[in-house]
Amino acid sequence: MKPVAICALCVQNKMALEQKILDELKGKLVEEKTKLENDLQRIANPTGTPGDYETKFEDLGTDSDENATEVEEYADKLALENDLEKQLKDVLDALKRMEDGSYGFCENCQQDIDIDRLRAYPAARTCIKC
Length: 130
Known about the structure:
mainly alpha
């Protein structure tokens, strides 16, 4: 079988397209990072470690009803904070993978993650099969 020659322009166009897609996905990740950080700051204070927050506890008073409300609100905020922190960690990890060149590969099978999956969830770590 005769080897097929690949034109340099075709390779450049493919690389440009890939960079364009990476730029698009990075923009989505940065936008999501900002949104998550803003949401977290409403209910928690940053601890100084990137992506780590401490849930705010509001003192409403000393009455038993007020104390019950405080505990209930704190528990709700704590659950939300944990969920938002996990999402933020996934976004920060995806941005780090973009920098080190490992972005877009499944962590389990090392195959490419489908571009449609990445567009739907840019912080995806695995392909649909895994």
